[in-house]
Amino acid sequence: MTIQIEMDGEVRQVELLQGEGGRYRASIDGEPAVDVTAVVLRPGVLSLHVDGKAYRCVLAESAEGTVAYVGGKRLPYRVDDPRSLKSRRSRHGGSEGPKPLSAPMPGRVLRVLACVGDTVEAHQGIVVIEAMKMQNELKSPKAGKVVQLRAEPGATVAAGDVLAVIE
Q1: CATH classification code of 2-86
Q2: Is domain 95-166 in CATH 3.30.70.1670, yes or no?
Q3: 116 neighbors 110 (Cβ within 8 angstroms)
Q4: Could you give the CA distance from residue 80 to residue 4 in angstroms, rounded to a whole number?
Q5: In tens digits, what is the pLDDT along the chain, a chain of 167 residues?
Q6: Following CA atoms 62, 57, 156, 133 in sequence, which dihedral angle do they give, to the nearest 10 degrees?
Q7: Do residues 164 and 118 lie in contact, with contact meaning Cβ atoms separated by under 8 Å?
Q8: Nearest to residue 115, comparing CAs of 147, 83, 76?
C-alpha cells in the first residue's frame, strides 16, 4: 500500500508492505525500507518499534487538524488515502454535532478554564494539563457550548481520555 502523508507542510510518499502480527516494512520517499511493528494499545494509542527503537504514538484531533504525539514531539499530519479520508470525514466531519476534547498524552490536570454551559470560541483554551514537565493548553475544536466537563484540577488523565465535550 502506498499513501501520502503531509507533515509540517512537506508531502512524503510512504510505502507499506504488511507482514504478520502488526509487522511492516516501510519505505519513505524511496529510501531503504525499515522494519516497523505497530501494536494498538487502545484506540488512538500505538506502540511503535522502528528498527529496534520503541516509541509511544498518540493520535488526536486538535483545532488545527489531526496530530500525532511521538516521543514527546507534536506532529500535525494529514493522510492522503481515499479510504482513510472517507472514514475520517464520516467520524469527524465538519463542525456539526458534539466534539470531544481528549487528552493527547498522560498527565495531570492543572487548570480548568471553562465551565459547563460556557459559550466558547474555536481554539479557546478549555483545560491545561501537565505532561512530561510541560504545560499543554487543550483548546476547543470548534465554537460552541461546553456540554460536558470531565476534568478536575489535580486529576490524572490517560492518553485519549475525553476531558470535555463541545456542542
Answers
A1: 3.30.700.30
A2: no
A3: no
A4: 5
A5: 677 777 666 777 878 777 777 788 888 888 888 888 888 888 888 888 888 888 888 888 766 677 888 877 887 777 665 444 444 444 444 557 888 888 888 899 999 999 999 999 988 999 999 987 888 899 998 899 999 999 999 999 988 888 999 99
A6: -90
A7: no
A8: 147
Return the amino acid letter for 158: A
The residues near 149 (Cβ < 8 Å, ≥ 6 apart) are 112, 114, 115, 116, 163, 164
- What are the distances in angstroms from CA 111 to CA 89, 122, 167? 31, 19, 21
Here the cell at position 2 is: 502506498
The domain ranges of the chain are 2-86, 95-166
